[in-house]
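May I ask for an example protein's residues together with how it folds?

___
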Amino acid sequence: MAEKKVSLPAKLINGGVAGLVGVTCVFPIDLAKTRLQNQQGAQVYKGMLDCLAKTVRSEGYFGCYRGAAVNLTLVTPEKAIKLAANDIFRQRLSKDGQIPLWGEMLAGCGAGTCQVVVTTPMEMLKIQLQDAGRLAAQRTVPTPAQAGAPGLAPSLVAPPPVPPPCRTSATSITLELLKTRGLTSLYRGAGATLLRDVPFSMIYFPLFANLNAMGPRGVGAGCQGDGNERAPFLQSFMSGCVAGSVAAVAVTPLDVIKTRLQTLQKGEGEDSYRGIVDCTRRIISREGPSAFLKGATCRALVIAPLFGIAQGIYFLGVGRDGAGLPGCLISI
């Protein structure tokens, strides 16, 4: 697969636009994923659709976009770093226009490592905002112990209304964390984030590159007549969807651990964890291995279109065409 040089500004702009469009489309499903993964005792939600329906009912339509402002702000540098770093590493590891499989995996590893500097605080803040509604709703759901306690039959007691979640903002959370715990508090769960993002990138980028190279090729518009060929938009989109969903499901157990570690406020009877090993041990002993797949469907539904849209827009060359920057997108 031939590797063509691309200007760094074009990489960053393309990656940023791709991330913005992708996140806007799939954020409600990501919110459902976070809430499902954090459920331990009282089961507030039975699944993704139930979660979204209850969220709209109790918090309104825009409740499904709680935390979206954080993502929309930080996803631009995150996706730009991820996609641009992968391209740069691929170019460095290629020889005579070709890159071996181990080189593709190593490039993905480097991309996943680079993005953590932005991903960790972004996920940290986003999770607090996304999970606030679940914690508010959980107060009205009896735990298994409470349900078995003597007293009036549940059917004879009118359920109390769900109180609206406290409308905290990412700014207030950030300032409070910096004031009370310091800068390192924003990087809580950085190790788990690294363990999730590095394997994800090692699976995703080689798989995408090979899927994208299988279909028909077309002359890349805007390449100043150099005759370089690249995959059409639909092919890049579908390759991104397939590669993204496969990689997302594969690392879901690591995503569950990361989400649990980064959640600061816990519901009644929910565990707090001292680290990755402690979190893994407690989940296995108290919830069983199946808990590591919580939110797997949501995650696949989020990542597939997110990376499909991202790769499609990235390959369209928005940054190059919009800013008049030189260079073509990489042809893989």
Remarks:
- Residues 152-158, 220-227, 319-332 have pLDDT under 50 and may be disordered.
- The first strand starts at residue 218 and ends at 219.
